[in-house]
Design brief:
The chain is of the alpha+beta class and 361 residues long. Among the domains are: 35-190, no CATH class; 277-361, Tetratricopeptide repeat domain (Serine Threonine Protein Phosphatase 5, Tetratricopeptide repeat, Alpha Horseshoe), CATH 1.25.40. The chain has 11 helices and 12 strands. It has helices at 5-23, 192-203, 212-225, 229-242, 246-258, 262-275, 278-290, 294-307, 312-325, 328-339, 345-357; strands at 35-42, 45-52, 71-72, 80-81, 92-95, 99-101, 104-106, 109-117, 122-128, 144-151, 153-166, 172-189. The strands form 3 sheets. Strands 1-2-5-8-9-10 form a 6-stranded antiparallel beta sheet, with no helix packed on it. Strands 7-6-12-11 form a 4-stranded antiparallel beta sheet, with no helix packed on it. A two-stranded antiparallel sheet has the order 3-4. A hairpin with a 4-residue loop joins β8 and β9. α4 (229-242) packs antiparallel against α5 and α5 (246-258) runs antiparallel to α6.
């Protein structure tokens, strides 16, 4: 019996659908070890960990569920391997910039993250360039980027395996794995200043360099962190070519001062103060106070009271400078002047606070 073309097509479509139905599945929750991701910024660099989170569930973890030392895999490569530091696929850690772990340099990139724990809580962290494998089954020591000794810590019970970042500083942080009553710490360091300066050089080639503020922010970072001051000076000069504002001159003065060019630094600030507004001069006065230059701060803040004799805030700031110096009579005189001018609430509160501290009537 002949089969019509339409029936043949229907049979083929049905077979295709059946085959697809066998393999195609909708996305459903992963159990019992859900996936997770945690990320931390250190400087302008990021560290990102992707992992799966098993639970203790009353099981004996260390030495049993997670063998001590290196575990011989019965599946996969049949190799001796470290712990996958999670469940399911490789736990991975990604560094956006070159880093150091245990003092060892690690290029930017993604790595498989493994741990070894021993009965005495000594251990190792291992980064593998092969981060795509499943678990530890295909671990290959020749792919190791880094091995570094660690000491495992005791912590309160953590039911669900968790990665976190602690002890953060400007240049470093600890990535920690917490599970059951153990914590695996990994100290990660970045050369933050070098990374920021290199990144600024590249960013200033983009639209960031189309305005003076990109150059001034880069120069100010150099100033505040006392790094690459010559480059910072070149950057602030480029900003000043576009705008001769107070803030830019202040940055240049600061860089010149750190370079030992004191007379040039003083000259540029004399020019800046001559054209500065009340808020700019006031801020500069407090900057000098923070640097311990009390007499210079008083000189600058006095200029503000002369230019803006109806500003309660100008007299309040000058009073504060005298109080910091320890000149009680002049401090009280200026606070009283400020309070006599119906000052704004914040200014009034500051003057009254100092008057009480100075025991002034």
């Amino acid at each position: 019996m002949k089969t019509s073309t339409s029936i043949k097509c229907a049979i083929i479509l049905l077979a295709t659908f059946a085959a697809a139905h066998v393999w195609a599945q909708v996305t459903t929750p992963r159990t019992p070890s859900p996936g997770a991701k945690v990320s931390q910024t250190i400087g302008i660099s990021t560290v990102t960990v992707k992992y799966s989170r098993p639970s203790v569930k009353g099981r004996e973890v260390w030495g049993k569920l997670v063998p001590y030392g290196w575990n011989v895999q019965a599946f996969g490569a049949g190799n001796s391997a470290p712990w996958r530091a999670g469940a399911n696929e490789n736990t991975t850690v990604e560094f956006s910039h070159p880093a150091k772990i245990g003092g060892q340099a690690v290029p930017a990139g993604i790595y498989g993250l493994f741990f070894v724990i021993n009965p005495d809580d000594s251990g190792e962290v291992i980064l593998s360039k092969d981060y795509r494998s499943w678990g530890s089954f295909f671990y290959n020591a020749s792919q190791d980027q880094l091995r570094s000794k660690i000491t495992v810590r005791s912590i309160p019970n953590t039911e669900l395996l968790t990665y976190d970042f602690i002890n953060l500083t400007k240049n470093s942080g600890e990535l920690v794995l917490n599970w059951e009553k153990k914590q695996f710490p990994v100290v990660i360091e970045f050369a933050v200043d070098e990374i920021v300066m290199a990144n600024a050089t590249e960013e200033l080639k983009s639209t960031t360099g189309f305005t003076p503020f990109g150059f001034s922010s880069a120069a100010n970072y150099a100033l505040q962190n006392n790094i690459n001051l010559d480059k910072g000076l070149a950057w602030i000069d480029q900003a000043l070519q576009q705008s001769q504002n107070f803030a830019f001159k202040n940055i240049k003065s600061g860089i010149l001062r750190k370079l030992g060019k004191t007379s040039e630094a003083d000259q540029i600030m004399t020019e800046a103060v001559a054209s500065g507004n009340e808020a700019e001069i006031n801020t500069y006065g407090y900057q000098l106070l923070n640097q311990g230059q009390n007499d210079k701060a008083i000189e600058i803040l006095t200029i503000n009271t002369q230019r803006y004799p109806k500003s309660a805030n100008a007299f309040d700031s000058l009073g504060e400078a005298y109080a910091i110096k320890g000149d009680k009579p002049n401090a009280i005189k200026n606070f009283k002047k400020s309070l006599s001018m119906n000052p704004p609430a914040a200014t009034k509160a500051n003057s009254e606070k100092y008057m009480q501290q100075l025991d002034a009537k």
